[in-house]
Amino acid sequence: MTAVQDFCTVCLSLLFPWQFLGIAISYLPGAIKHLMQTEPLQNISFSRIRDAWFNAFWAWAGANIRVGNGPRITALLGGRVSQAQVVDKPVVPPVSGVILDIGPGPGFWVDLYAKNNTGDLKVYGVEPNTTAHPGLRMRAHEAGLDNVYHIIPAGIQDISKIEVTEIDGSTSKIEKGSVDCIVTLLCLCGIPEPEENITELYQYLKKGGRWYIFEHVKTNRNYCMRYYQAFVNLFWPHIIGGCELCRDTKKSLLQAGSWEKVDLVQPPEETWYATVPHIFGTLTK
């Protein structure tokens, strides 16, 4: 590439977050109109508008992220990711057993659990945004996971308080130290009190349990990009549902407790000028 082409590539990359924000803003009028047509005015609060707005926007954004990242997330949940690269054979076991699916939203990745269902699968989708529940429930049904996928309408701190109705009608709670796998896909950027909540999640994993991760994080490859990312982040959380660009999520994960195996890095193909870099891989307790 020529110097001019390189310069144009960098500029387009730096413009990307502003384009993304613009698209998100375009969904606000429609979300407000929908609420006014479907709910009593006295029920429409700022938080209700925010949740409906994000849900409407994420119906578009999440679907596009699924298209762009489908193969790599399929590989991740199949245990076929090493040093942020997709490999042919599993380097850790695929997702199985009891799974905490954190922040699944409307369920764009739910069908991947069906591909790894060996008969003992039980997935708990921890999603406090009730606006997303109809889509999540629909996609779980379409994936054939009606009796496998349970929606937990709470935040991370309240997981253990929720009673889950089992197939036989009995109720149970999710105990700490009882979970085989945790899955977080582009959700830790938006949780409150990230260090505290990530540590809380760690406690649910069994010894030998695995955490499958694809998250965007604070940039650390270029000093100037740190300032640029911080500037974008002045606006980003207010428009993208509380999502924070500058979280050092990898540090929070590593400090949550001791890990037997760490395979969590930034994909090498991501450039120094990426405003929204990622970490990708697994942690084994």
Explained architecture:
- This is Methyltransferase domain-containing protein.
- Keywords: Methyltransferase, Transferase.
- InterPro entries: Methyltransf_11 (IPR013216), SAM-dependent_MTases_sf (IPR029063), Thiol_S-MT (IPR052356).
- The protein has 285 residues and is α/β, with parallel strands linked by helices.
- The protein has one domain: Vaccinia Virus protein VP39 (Rossmann fold, 3-Layer(aba) Sandwich), CATH 3.40.50.150.
- It has helices at 3-26, 28-38, 46-77, 111-115, 133-142, 194-204, 223-232, 236-239, 249-254, and strands spanning 81-82, 85-86, 98-102, 122-126, 149-152, 164-165, 171-172, 179-185, 205-216, 261-265, 278-284.
- The strands form 3 sheets. Strands 5-4-3-8-9-11-10 form a 7-stranded mixed sheet.
- The termini are far apart.
- The mean pLDDT is 94.
Count of DSSP H/I helices: 9
What does the overall shape look like?
A: globular
Mean pLDDT: 94
The CATH class is identified as: Alpha Beta
Estimate the helix proportion, in percent: 25-40%
> What would you report as the Rg, rounded to the nearest angstrom?
19 Å
Report the order of strands and helices. Answer: HHHEEEHEHEEEEHEHHHEE
- Our estimate of the beta-strand percent is 15-25%
What is the CA-CA span between the terminal residues?
44 Å
Content-based structural category: alpha/beta
Main pleated-sheet profile? 7 strands, mixed
CATH topology: Rossmann fold
Order of strands, main sheet, comes to: 5-4-3-8-9-11-10
Corresponding CATH architecture: 3-Layer(aba) Sandwich
Number of strands: 11
How many domains make up the coordinates?
1
Per CATH, the superfamily is Vaccinia Virus protein VP39
| pLDDT < 50 runs, ≥5 residues | none
